[in-house]
Structures are given as structure tokens and as C-alpha cells.
Amino acid sequence: xxxxxxxxxxxxxxxxxxxxxxxxxxxxxxxxxxxxxxxxxxxxxxxxxxxxxxxxxxxxxxxxxxxxxxxxxxxxxxxxxxxxxxxxxxxxxxxxxxxxxxxxxxxxxxxxxxxxxxxxxxxxxxxxxxxxxxxxxxxxxxxxxxxxxxxxxxxxxxxxxxxxxxxxxxxxxxxxxxxxxxxxxxxxxxxxxxxxxxxxxxxxxxxxxxxxxxxxxxxxxxxxxxxxxxxxxxxxxxxxxxxxxxxxxxx
Length: 251
Fold this sequence. Notes:
It is built from six helices and ten strands, in the order H-E-E-H-H-E-E-E-E-H-E-E-E-H-H-E. The chain has 251 residues and is an alpha+beta fold.
């Protein structure tokens, strides 16, 4: 796909979703923000089109976010296991919430200060985990950086994203949506490493990449910078730990 030509977006493959879960199929009609490798928006396409490997192999790339929610007292990270009903990467463990800002909502297209993806993260934390927006407002997320990665799911489906990494420290009430989430748990660093070491667990490719190169170091820094005034962890303490001005290509 020529990055400079939005007309190329009209020549993408499609597929019938009637054999999949009805709710997950409905969500595939939401419109992702299509971008260049430098994260410049060039149009919008539905999630179904964006996640077909036939289109990904043509260069189709969209914007996404990965949110990590930590408890501010003990520093444990909230993980989720994706529901069996999910069309891409079902039953895999991953970070707290992984989804997309949508072209359907004007505020989610705002790029300044990563506002759009933060608004999307608040929306999806409520949708997937039942976390009230007042417990995870957009202004409380700390944007760290963006990664560009490509990962097949099962041959037919996959991901090709510019993924914004967001950290949040908050006490949250979780009421998981069973159509989105099979299980969830809070883990410390040792518990997460033990999960990675257990061959019975499977993990989303983006979570494995972020954990491999960034997560544990940033987690250490978060723990080290506990507020002396409140004795709590604050995501805002991570300002400057990563270069958020450019997109990091990961393989």
C-alpha cells in the first residue's frame, strides 16, 4: 500500500464473520485510524479489514494502545486473559487492556499529548473490565512511547499496529465483561515471570515484546519513585523515562 495514497484503502480484502461470536463480529465494524509507519493518519477502515493478514501483508497499519494498570500501594499489575470469543488472539494472557482509538469518535483522534488514545483507554477499561471512568480518567494516564510491530494470530488474522504504551496507577474496581475477558489477576514482577516460565500459558505477541524490552525496567523505576508524601506509586513519576517523540520498530 502506498502510504501517500488514501485511495489504496479502498482495495482491501474482506471476509464473512457469520461463523464468529455475534458481539465480537459487531465490534469488528468499528473504524480504526489508519496510519503510516511514522503514525501519520491517512484514513480509516473497519477493524475487520485492519486485522486480516491479507491486508496487513499489503502494508495496512493502524493505531492502537496498550494500557498497564498498577495498584498504587503494592505495585501489582492487572493482567487479563482474553475471552475464547475473541476473534484475534483468543485465550491469551496480556496486559490490562489492549485496543484502539476509533475514527468514530472525534476526541479519540486527538494526537496532542496522546489525548485520543488516553480517552480510548478510559472507554475500553470500562467496556472490558467494568472499571468506572472516574477511576481511570484520561488525564491520569502516563504516555511512555509508541511501538510498531506486526504479529500473525492464526494465519487469517493478525495485528499490525503503532501501539501507544500507557501506564496508570489506580485503585480500580473490576467487573469483567465475560465476552471480552476469560480471567484476570493482579501480579507482581516475580509472579509475572513465573507465568512467562509456565509453558501452559500463552501470551499476546505485543505483550511479550513490551515485557521483553521495556516493562520490567519501567516497573522497577515506578517502584523506585514511590511518592515520599503519600507512600504511593504515581505513573506521572515516569515522565521522561522513554522517548515518546518517535515510533520504535520492534520485531
